[in-house]
Amino acid sequence: MLAIKDEIKELIESVLIAGVLAFFIITFVAQSFVVHGHSMDPTLADGERLFVNKFIYRFEPPQRGDIIVLKPKGDPKRKYIKRVMGLPGDKLEIKDGSLYINDKRIEEDYINESYIRARLYRMYNEDKQEYEIRSTAGPFYVPKDHVFAMGDNRNNSSDSRNMMVVGYVPYKNISGKAFWVYWPVTEMKVLDKVTYPDLN
Q: Does residue 82 carry a catalytic annotation?
């Protein structure tokens, strides 16, 4: 009888320890995230599940090319997944169907589109203190402790280009860095680090 009680006690202790560890990992280390939508095609597909490193940005700021989970404006319960394109102090523009960072045209082999479709952008003119409708985006000037994030599916992504929905993303609104797709098993992969040598 005593042995059974000891086994039950050990089982309860094991479950409690596992629960505490799981809580610690989910809160501070890593968390699962499900991709919803197609804004990150072809890098990430709708329905894929991945792990997000939640502690990395406690030790270093986000880097250009990182795929991050962020909170958009207005609805803190929602989470978006995008790629960091602009860092504090950067100037970004979309013109002639291409992305320019600090006046340099960016080549990106991870996007499908060779041309970013012209569309109407609602841009704020600081000199006139009013919004204007433009066919090009920018220039955007990334403030301190913020990033400019964009989906890899540039023609179908609600991201920092939309100042009303996402805009410049403060560091505090970044949940973490995506690093590993684990589901479906056939698509399992570590997300590659992307570099931009022309901007270094």
A: yes
